[in-house]
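Now for today's protein:

——
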Amino acid sequence: MGILGMLERILTTRRVFLFACIILSAYLLSMWALPLHAVAIGNWLLALSPAVALLCSYKRSRSPDSPRKLLWILLITGLSLWILGMLLTIWEILIVNVSADAAFYSDFVFFLYGVPILLSICSSTEQQKIPLFFLLDGIQVLLTAYLTYITLFAVVPFATRDIHPISESRLALAYNVENVLLACAATLRVAANPRWEEGRDFFRILCAFLWLYAVCVGLYNHESVVSGNLPSAAFYVLASLPFLFLAVAVTTPSVQRTKARSAAEKGPLTLFLENASSIVYTVALVILGAVIVPTHFSMGIAAILVALVVYGIRMTTLQNRYLQSQQALQIARDRLEEISLLDGLTNIPNRRCFDQALDAEWKRAVRSRAPLALLLIDVDHFKMMNDSHGHQYGDSCLVEIADALRRNLGRSGDLVARYGGEEFAVILPATGIEGARLVAEKMREAILSLAIRNETPIGLFVSVSIGIAVHVAFTGGTSSALVEAADAALYQAKRLGRNRVECFFVHVPAPVLHS
C-alpha cells in the first residue's frame, strides 16, 4: 500500500478531529504534570500541529476533487516553512540559548512562511498556464527572502559584519501586520471566485485558516512579547488551534460543484479582483523595498525597480496574449461568418448570402442607375429524380449543377447561390437583358452537357428552367420586385414546357412581359 493509500485510510475527518482533541488534551495534561518543561512541550506541540495539517493538505492535493494542485503545493510549502521555523526555535532555545529579546534565524523562516501563501492567493487560473510566470514568481520569492533578511537583521545576507536584528516587539508587530494582510487578501480572493468555480473550496478554507491564525497568533504574540511574560499553556493551545482547524477542514469532503464556466460568465467584480490579484505581490515587494531604503538605499531602490520590472513583464505578456486571443477570435469569427454564408451541401453561397448580396447590389444600382439582372434557376422534375434514384443521388446532382453554374459565371462580381431546395439564383450586376440571356443559355446548356440521368417527359437527362428579371431605368423601389419578376419569368418557363429561358423587364411601376 502506497503513502497516499495509507493517508486515505488514516486521515479521515473523524480521526483527524479525534487526534486533534487527543494531542491538545495530552498537552494540557503534561503542562499540569510537568510545569518546568512547559515551554519545551509547548514548542513541540506548535511543531506537531502544522505537521498534521501538512499531511492532511498533501492528502487533499492528491485527491481527484482538487484540480488546482498548485494551490495546495504552495500551502504545503508554507506549512513546511512554519514547521522548519518551529524546529529552529526549539534548537535556538534548547541548544544555542538565543535571547528572546530580538529576532533570530527562526524568525526569518517564520516570516517567509507567508511568501508561498501570498503566491497562492495571487495565483490566477489563466496565469498558471504561462510557464514564464513561474520564473517571474521564483524571482519574486528570492527577492522577498533577501529583503526579509535585511529587514529582520539590518544587514545584507552573508555580510561579514555583525547582524543587528530588530527587537522582538517590532518583530511581533511585523508578524501581526503580515497575518492580517494575508487574511484580507484571502478574503478578497474568496469574493473574486464565483461559487461554481474550481478552487473556491481552497480559498474558503485558506481564508478561514488565515483569519483564525491572525487572531490566535496575535493573542500569543501579545502575551509573549507585549506583556513580557512566557505564554501560558492556554496560549500554546491557542496558537495550535489554526493548524488543527486546517487539518480538519481539508479532510472534510467538499460539496460537489458544477463545472467551472467561462470568463464571459463571470461578473465585473470577479474579473476585476482576479486580474488585480497579480499586483498584490508587487505591492508587497515595493513595501519591503521602501522599508530598507533608509538603511540600504541602493538595495531598496533596486528591489523596487525589480518588482516593477517583473510586474511590467507580467502585464506585457498578458496583454500580448490578450491581443493574440483577440486576433484568433477575429479570425474564428470571420471564418464562422464565412461558413454561415455557405450552403453546406453545394459549398456555394446560401440564401442568407444571396439576400445580403442582392440588397447591396440593388442599392449600388440605384445610385449608379445601372441595370441589374437576376436569374432564378429550377431543376426540372427534381422530385421525380429523388423518387426514382433516391435522395443521395439527388444531392449529388445538386452538387454537380452548382459547380457547373459557378464555372459559367463571367465576372468576379457575379454571384451564384442556392436559393432553396432544387432552386438556384444568379445575380449579374450591371448586366442588361441580352447579357443576362447569354449567361442563362450558357448555364442551361452546361447543365444539359453534364448528362445526369433523369428520365422525364422532356428528356433523358437533367435540365433546368431559368427565369430572368432585369431592372432598368428606375429611381426607387425594393429588391423584392426584382425577385418577384424573376419568379414570374421562371413560372412562365415551366408553364411553356421547361428546359428554357424566359425574361421579364422590371420598370417603374410594374413588370412587363418581354417576348
In short: DSSP finds 18 helices and eight strands in the chain. Residues 255-264, 508-515 have pLDDT under 50 and may be disordered. The radius of gyration is 40 Å.
